[in-house]
Each structure stands twice: as C-alpha cells, then as structure tokens.
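Please decode residue identities from the backbone states below.
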C-alpha cells in the first residue's frame, strides 16, 4: 500500500535536482541494481555476479572510493568502471564535538540541501543517529525538525552514505582481513532517529538498511538497527517483513485527544490502529522489544494518570519505555518536566514491569539532542506564531517597538 504524507501547508516538497555528473553513483544500489548497472556498462553477464561481490566488498567493507585502488580488478576494467560510475557519499560541511564526546555532522547532499547526523559514544556501544529526509512533514509541535519548511526524501545512497562518512571521520574502516565484532566497533548501532520520518521514505530506507545488515556490506546485525516512527501504520508490517529491524514508536501521549495535537499523524492513524499494528509486529519477545519514546512535557503529558494509562496501553507488548526529557529549541512552545516528575513517572512504569530508562540528553550544548536537529543554515523556518498556532497554544506576545526603544533581537 502506498502512503501519502500529510504535508503541512507551509511545507514544500522539493524535487531532487538532477545529479550534475552523468556517471552513476554505486553507493546505495541494491545488489540487483548494481549488477544490472554493471551489465549495462558492458560487464559480461556471466561475470556480473563476481564483479558485484568484489565491488560491494571494496565499497562497504574497505571504504574504498577510488576504482584504481581495486587491485583485484584488471586495469582495463577499472578504466571502464571509471567511465560510467562514481563512488560518492555526502560531504561533511561541519563537525561539532560536544563536551560529552557526542559528534554532530552537518552533511551536504545533492542539490545543496543539508541534514544532520549524530554520533553518540557510550561505554558499551557507539550509536549513529542518521536522517532519512531533509526536514519533516509531520509537524509534531514539540520537534524542531518539524519547523523546517523544506522537505525532500534522501536516496538510499545518501542514507547508507551517512554511515560511511561517519566511518571516514572516526577512522573505522577495518584493516583487510580483520572483522571487528559488533561490540567493539565504534559504530555498533544505527538509529533512524535523525531528521525525517523513515516510513515516508520506505524504499530508500529499506535498501540502505539492507546494505547495512548485509554480511558483505556494513555487516551490522538487524538487532542493532532501530527504526523510529511516529506511527505510519500501513508501513509497520512492511518494516517487519522487508527490513526486520527493531522498532521504536514516538508515542508521547496516551489519549487520542492529546496525541492529535502533539503528533498530528494520530488523526490519520489513531492509537488503537497503531497498537493493532504493533501487536502484529514479527518476532516480538523479551529480547526483541518495541521501544516507546515518550517526551516529557511539563504539565502536558507527565501526570501519574498519564503513566498509568501508558502502562495499560502497552499491556501484553514486550516493551521498553524511553522517557525523553524535552529538549528546548529557540521558540519551542513547551517546557521540560521537572526531574522529580520524570522520576515519579518512570517509577510507575517500572513498577508495572517495564524498563523505563530516562534518556540522558546528549550533545545538548551543540543542539544535537533529540528533536533539536535542523540544519542551521536552513533559513526558511516557521515563526513562533505559526508554531504556537499549530500547537494550539495562545498567541505569543508581540514585541511592540516603541520609538527610541533599543532594538530587540
Ligand atoms: N520521525 C521519526 C524519527 C525521529 S526520532 C519519529 O517520529 O519517530 C526523534 C525522536 O525525538 C522522536 O521520538 C521525537 O518525537 C523525539 N523528539 C522530537 N523533538 C524532541 C524534543 N524537542 N525533545 C525531546 N525529544 C524530541
């Protein structure tokens, strides 16, 4: 089933500009697409499988971008490849490193658009948070990315390319013949929790994640990949059957009334429908739980009654509840719940038998925390009046300039 994203009236869906070079980028092609491309470029059919595997290994296991470095290919064949193809990943424009070690990359993709990628090192893992769209059409009222007007889907190459560029920056291409175990890798986990709604860009996300999971690709276990969605119900079953990764749901509210304002897609796919799809998600078990993300907004969704409703909703689903203290951004219409409130909420959920970790904000000093992503250079943004109107909040006070008063910025 195909899904049409609800597009906020202010959002503009921008077509991708044609790639300047007429050579095709090999990054992001599925194995079948790569093979077909090689045959079109003159590779004999009977060799195409072998070439596909060789190229795949050079690109995804060794991080090679230059055909001349592919020493197991004949010189003439390398020349032919160079004529037709390139191996390109998005370009890092800036890299900001937080006091806590979190790294935020501003990354430029074709057409000059930008997305953000965040690397979060922890003691037992390293998580890369990647983006699936420039901006986002969802307009969740507490999320900074939703205030960006421009939206475009990333290609599979731009999605898997984010993993590759982070590996470049971290110096993590394994030495030939050495395959570090997942746990000792700098990038051991991938979360699709950056900019965009991954299930509104399903095919590209799927193809990119297939490469990330392939033993001859980036080679990460499907259990180390988590796709976060606001709940695009028709695509949830497909995520299970065609990707098979772990699922995180941006729940944030326990009644339709409140969820309709916080996560407007709820008007299309209300809570009951969402939970029906979740209960049918394959392989659900205690070791493969669904993560529910719940942003803690002061006096909005953080009462004891909310916590109890939450427990009731998830009953019977192997689940973990990730409580996210609200991260503020310029013009944000909410406040973070008090710490005591967050702990009391967590306690109710925990006592009901669910893990309820409170997500420590990481990289706040560099605006890399959840919901703060938004390319700094993106000037076309909604103003605070539009943000408040969408959140159903009273109009902010207008700043009245009196003659001779100092300028207010
Ligand atoms: N569109 C997908 C992927 C984004 S994941 C989704 O909705 O799941 C980013 C997570 O951070 C989501 O759970 C989102 O709801 C949450 N988030 C957004 N803004 C936030 C903020 N200001 N503070 C804390 N969490 C936020």
């Amino acid at each position: 089933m195909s899904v049409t994203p609800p597009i906020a009236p202010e959002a503009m869906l921008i077509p991708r500009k044609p790639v300047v070079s007429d050579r095709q980028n090999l990054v992001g092609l599925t194995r079948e697409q790569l093979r077909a491309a090689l045959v079109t470029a003159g590779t004999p059919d009977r060799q195409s499988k072998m070439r596909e595997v060789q190229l795949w290994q050079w690109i995804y296991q060794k991080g090679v971008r230059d055909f001349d470095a592919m020493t197991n290919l004949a010189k003439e064949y390398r020349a032919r490849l160079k004529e037709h193809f390139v191996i390109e990943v998005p370009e890092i424009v800036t890299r900001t490193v937080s006091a806590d070690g979190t790294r935020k990359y501003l990354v430029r993709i074709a057409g000059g658009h930008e997305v953000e990628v965040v690397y979060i090192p922890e003691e037992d893992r390293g998580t890369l948070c990647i983006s699936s769209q420039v901006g986002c059409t969802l307009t969740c009222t507490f999320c900074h990315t939703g205030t960006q007007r421009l939206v475009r889907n990333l290609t599979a190459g731009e999605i898997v390319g984010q993993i590759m560029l982070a590996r470049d920056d971290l110096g993590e291409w394994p030495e030939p013949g050495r395959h570090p175990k997942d746990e000792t890798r700098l990038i051991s986990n991938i979360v699709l929790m950056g900019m965009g709604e991954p299930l509104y860009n399903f095919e590209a996300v799927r193809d990119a994640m297939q490469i990330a999971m392939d033993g001859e690709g980036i080679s990460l276990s499907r259990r180390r990949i988590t796709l976060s969605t606001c709940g695009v119900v028709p695509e949830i079953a497909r995520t299970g059957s065609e990707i098979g990764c772990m699922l995180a749901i941006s729940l944030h509210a326990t009644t339709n009334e409140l969820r309709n304002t916080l996560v407007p897609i709820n008007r299309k796919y209300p809570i009951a429908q969402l939970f029906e799809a979740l209960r049918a998600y394959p392989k659900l078990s205690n070791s493969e739980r669904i993560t529910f993300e719940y942003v803690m907004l002061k006096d909005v969704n953080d009462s004891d009654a909310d916590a109890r409703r939450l427990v009731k909703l998830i009953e019977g689903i192997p689940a973990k509840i990730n409580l996210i203290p609200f991260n503020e951004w310029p013009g944000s219409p909410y406040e973070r719940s008090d710490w005591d409130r967050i702990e009391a909420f967590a306690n109710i959920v925990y006592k009901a038998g669910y893990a309820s970790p409170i997500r420590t904000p990481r990289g706040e000093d560099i605006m890399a925390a959840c919901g703060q992503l938004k390319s700094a250079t993106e000037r076309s943004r909604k103003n605070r009046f539009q943000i408040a109107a969408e959140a159903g909040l009273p109009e902010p006070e207008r700043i009245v300039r009196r003659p001779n008063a100092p300028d207010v910025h």
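Observation: The pocket of S-adenosyl-L-homocysteine is lined by residues 138, 140, 142-143, 193, 197, 228-230, 250, 293, 295, 324, 326-327, 370-371 (CB under 6 Å).
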